[in-house]
Design goal:
elongated; mainly alpha
Length: 74
């Protein structure tokens, strides 16, 4: 292995997969929801946005459906 490398002649290439990794979106979330995920994120040592993404990814993986009828779930 060389002790030094010359990167000045190296050509740069964009990562073709970078755009597909994550997409930035704007969402309106309740303060209590943000607080809940921030607290869990602090305990887990991860950013709260990553924790929300992990939770939503888990919902997708398990095909979870939400009941938005407003009726209490037993």
């Amino acid at each position: 292995m060389k002790s030094e490398y010359d990167f000045s002649t190296m050509k740069s290439h964009k990562n073709p997969y970078a755009a597909k990794l994550k997409r930035s979106v704007t969402m309106r979330l309740s303060e209590d929801v943000i607080g809940y995920f921030k607290q869990m994120a602090d305990e887990a040592g991860v950013p709260y946005q990553s924790l929300i993404n992990l939770y939503l990814r888990d919902c997708v993986a398990h095909h979870r459906k939400i009941d938005i009828s407003g009726e209490p779930v037993p």
